[in-house]
Amino acid sequence: MESTEESTSLKPRGPNSPYTVSSNVRLIHLNREKRLESVRLNIIYCILWILLVAISASIPFYEWFMIDEPECWTARYAHIMVSVFVAMLTAFISAILCILNCITRISISIWRLNFCTVCFILLLLFSVANFLLAIYLFSMNTCYFAQITPADRLDGISNWFHMMSLKYDLKIVAILHLICCLLSFAIGIGFAIIKNNFKYVRHIDQD
Prior knowledge:
80% helix, 0% strand, mainly alpha, 207 residues
């Protein structure tokens, strides 16, 4: 009786055996879950990407139209130009990457995996650049409190936002750069997760 049970338990499992079929079903289910997770992540990061492009693109417009001229521009010209350059570069490159991501989001090719790597690296670089710039601008005195912008410039201004932009000119720019830093970091980490999911799905498909 024992020899019969042993021989049965040691019988090789064929491709159609219940064990093999259940294993394949489990792999297919995991594969589907990974695909759905990748799609959900893509949707979330596309929304974050749109916010990143919108906020980084708004920084130059804020500096051009809301920071007081000519006093503050003359005193902070180099800082404003660096801020405009970083913001425009972040917005432009992020917009291109977002479009390419939307076009290739279904693909699980080697090109897609490399694209995720490039996005991860570029977005982390943007995150570091915006973070360093935000910290530097935070450490500076605003033009108003450094008495570069005349105090009487606020007289007669009833617009609350205009008054705040005159008082805290580059502090507000620093906050916007910090938001861009956080969004870039979140999207970059997301692409590392998406790449890992795609590598798993690709491995299952090849099996």
